[in-house]
Amino acid sequence: MNVALALLLILGFVAFVYGAAVGFRGKALHLDYYGCEVSDRVKTTPQLRKRANRSFVYWCVAAAILLLVPLVWIVGDFQRSRTTLELLGLAAYVFVVVVIGSYPFAKIESM
Fold first, then answer.
1. How far apart are CA 5 and CA 31, in angstroms?
2. 81-105 pLDDT per residue, tens
3. CA distance 45 to 18
4. If I label 38, which of 17, 26, 72, 106 is the partner at 20 to 30 A Cα–Cα?
5. Residue 47: CA atoms inside 13 Å, Cβ hemisphere, count?
6. How buried is residue 99: exposed, middle or buried, by Cβ count under 10 Å (0-12/13-18/19+)?
7. For residues 104 and 59, is the Cβ–Cβ distance under 8 A?
């Protein structure tokens, strides 16, 4: 069980680091990376493009760092089995982290 939890947290960490790297390279608005259509106003205005890419970097780095906390908690005491309450708390925490990491998508739609 702990191995599966650790692997899922590592996968989430890698996904958010990749999102931050895409934003750092300035490609967050490309259809290949973003996955949905971005308004032409955001694509053509350099300030909005820069703000959108910077938003991807900040929020994805924050989400990746927040995912390290439960990963250290699981790896720190790897042999212990987790209670149901601990697993529910972990699920709620990861849900909040995913909401934080997906904030740039909502931010770009409102620009």
1. 31
2. 899 999 999 999 999 999 999 888 8
3. 24
4. 17
5. 1
6. exposed
7. yes
